[in-house]
Write a structure and sequence with these properties.
Length: about 325
């Protein structure tokens, strides 16, 4: 009897909270089947291939190319990257850029990797090999794309963009490999990794990524120089002459926050995005002081795919890939 009453009370509280959120304009109902319809939707120039993992298992890559396109962008995934498809293909339509000038390349896998070369395998979850994602992207992937004719446009260089952990990694990889990249974008990325408290925040986030938990000290030692070497803030000096795009939401609910996800969005998406927002603003302020122009995009929204899709299309419409 008590259990039934408790369940009823929780249900009523849920209904009440959703009703309040809806009345305040915090929740917008969107189609729940959006993600499932993405894969296979764009077949223009689609090819799949594998690249050397630099000591990791081979990395699967799915890419879209069309003759005459003026740019190729490498799109990096987020913390919960899967091994079947990139989250970009599952959850967005950015592959459609191939129809209007931009080739799209999506390396697959690497959950919690930060797309960097780790010091050691993660000993918390029995990882069998050391992540070497920086090598895989800057050497194996770039060389494979060169051989397949993806180095296009006037500059003959690539663009690189990513979301969340892939965002800050994109800025760092681009800045440290200027011979291959002339444009880099961070979407809800953590662009000031060496800021006070960030090591703890990253540590806690990685404990909850499957196959969990991941040990951040296996990635970069707690007081190691890697925290600075992989920090976009400390790489601003190498970004002059590049196109830089920084997008983030403000943590408030917007058009892509659907009813079924309201609690995840509130307790995870809002918190993560507000952190990314503060990091974006700190990075932009430091860039301005150093004379580095930054193309920015501020959204009313949380840490979720709809907003990242909009950011990519916004960058394209403003000439970021030109």
């Amino acid at each position: 009897m008590l259990k039934t009453a408790s369940k009823t009370m929780r249900s009523r509280m849920l209904v009440a909270l959703v009703a309040i959120a809806t009345s305040l304009g915090l929740v917008t109902v969107v189609g729940g089947a959006q993600a499932a319809a993405r894969i296979g939707g764009t077949q223009v120039g689609l090819e799949q291939f594998w690249i050397n993992g630099c000591g990791m298992p081979k990395v699967k890559v799915r890419a879209w190319k069309r003759p005459g396109n003026y740019k190729t962008v490498i799109m990096l995934d987020g913390m919960r990257a899967q091994y079947d498809y990139s989250g970009w293909e599952i959850n967005t339509n950015i592959q459609e850029m191939v129809r209007s000038g931009v080739n799209v390349v999506e390396p697959i896998g690497g959950p919690a990797s930060f797309y960097t070369d780790w010091d050691a395998p993660s000993n918390f979850n029995g990882q069998q090999y050391r992540y070497t994602w920086n090598c895989a992207i800057t050497r194996s992937l770039v060389h494979a794309l060169d051989r397949r004719g993806y180095r296009v446009g006037r500059s003959r260089k690539y663009a690189i963009m990513g979301l969340s952990m892939g965002g800050n990694a994109s800025l760092t990889i681009g800045a440290q490999n200027r011979h291959n990249f002339d444009a880099a974008g961070s979407l809800s990325g953590y662009n000031f990794l060496s800021a006070p408290g960030m090591r703890t925040m990253i540590r806690l986030a990685m404990l909850d990524v499957d196959p969990k938990p991941w040990n951040v000290d296996s990635m970069w030692p707690i007081w190691g120089l890697q925290w600075f070497q992989n920090d976009p803030m400390w790489n601003i000096g190498n970004m002059h002459g590049m196109k830089i795009f920084v997008g983030s939401g403000n943590g408030l609910f917007g058009r892509y926050n659907a009813l079924p996800n309201v609690f995840d969005d509130l307790f995870q998406g809002s918190t993560l995005e507000f952190l990314a927002f503060t990091q974006a603003k700190a990075f932009q302020a430091a860039a301005a002081l150093s004379g580095l122009p930054v193309m920015s995009y501020d959204a009313v929204g949380t840490h979720s795919w709809g907003y990242w899709q909009d950011m990519v299309w916004n960058a394209k419409s403003r000439g970021f890939f030109r």
